[in-house]
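Listing 4. Sequential folding, example run.
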Amino acid sequence: MPMPSNTLILRLSRDAVIVRAADGRITAWNAAAETLYGYSAAEAQGRVLDDLLHTHWPVSYSDAEAVLSLGLVWTGELQRTTRGGEVVVVDSRQAEDRLGADGAAVIVEVNWDVSAARAAQTALQRSEERYRALIEATDQYVWTNSPEGYMTGDQPGWSRLTGQTSEQYHGYGWAQHLHPEDQEAAVLTWQESVRTRSVYEMEQRVLGHDGTYRSFLVRAVPLLDEDGTLREWVGLHTDVSELKHAEQALKAWSAELEQQVAAQTHDLRAA
């Protein structure tokens, strides 16, 4: 059975397929390439590919040529500019071939537009960076636990708060940095939340890396997958020490005021 012609393959492919000569000039440009880059085949034919699309390579072009000359496939992401001026990111696979009667070497490349995926990835990365910056700028510490309720893996928030290493806080080791009077209630309440998949919320006194206890409001919630499977627990320790101190000062001031009023009332009655 005869193999289909290269021209037919170019026409049928849904991916952008481009063929360029050794000097970089375009010799073939399929319909998908027209859609992706905005130039018709007639406009692209004979143009130097990298000049036409202002290609930005992740490596030097000579390094890519060296790979291709060995008969290997070069794979990487290229940044290119369309006819309309839009910058796109394409996943490109390229290989050397010999087409035509003269057996001249050409480079065949297949491109997929991954711009949307990379933009979403960048947006997510920036969002995570902003979130980390916000957490670091406040008296809040984020941590995660396994579905079974054990602290595992890298926990930079908890380590920053307590100074514990991963070996020290692993499992229930985190409880060793709670005030002795708070440990039992904290662990029992946590185990009940894990058992019932309910929100964990309470106050705790935590021993910080500086050797002093501070008061925290703790809240943790279960994260579920779409099928209801528990993926992990995400928790947040919020430092409320200053608020507690202010409350204590207010209570002391209120008690002193009551004593003064009582004393004045007593003096007035005695008079």
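-- end of first protein; second protein begins --
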Amino acid sequence: MKPDVSICCVTYNHAGYIEKALRSFLKQHTNFQYEILIHDDCSTDGTEQIILHYQNMYPNIIKVYTEKENQFSQGSRKMFFRYLFPYAKGKYIALCEGDDYWIDSEKLQKQYDFMEKNLDYSVITNKSICIDKKGKMLKKYSGPNVKTDCDLGFYDEVNCLPPTASTFFDKRKIDGQIPDWFFEKCDESGDYVMHMLLLTKGKCRYLSNTMSAYRVMVPGSSNERFKKYSKVQLRQYYQDRIDVLKEVDSMTESKFYADISKAILKLDGYKNQTYGRWDDRIKEVKKGLINCNIVSRHLKIKYIICSMTPRLYHMLGIIKRITLWS
């Protein structure tokens, strides 16, 4: 019987973590069938042997795809979509990287039920805990700073993109409709491009239930590489994200222009922080303000603070989170 959900997991040198991820998939209590698709990018630490062992134990559920050469080192990015999306048989896809895992055995069922009842949504995510490479919890959540279930827009997701392990989306909304720029833009953040595309096809729901664990600073991970970026690399990183939003605005004929404008302003503020000289920042801020005439005065002030005094901006953000979660 054809599965309703495809769990897609990409791995590379995750031997110390992959079993926890696989067990969290297999522990899911559902009233529907699901499959588990795993892509291993030529691991050298025994990851491949572990996932093949699980495939032998659950041949009707787990399907493994391996590489003879590491594709990431040859410039390949957005692994989920290049190597697993074409094989997924489910109408929904649940994502989880090999070093992350799920902590709620009802995660898939809760997300599936919501999507089945709300056809105008294209993606659903959830609150996550954030852990280090040893499994120590760093903070109670990883995602938007909200206490209740809510919808997320472009600005919300730019402000705080939900972790991969929380993402569950309707494959039918984008199957055969992925534009060329999806693979050409923003190589270092496939999740970001994916969420921006999905928001053009339907709404995004955020569940306040804590149902997944997001692991940071694992060697070779995107968040570890981000920490090592130079200011020039950071500037390009934010510009790439802005370019994606401009592609979305063009593709949708400015249907989401107001929300996208706010999101671009947010990213531009972060980009301005990479300029060391104050006069360079001032020039960039003036350019940004000229291009954001529909944005509220409140957001413009936040943009100026973010661009010119990032420490103050960060402190204000901490105060806001403390107030929200107290």
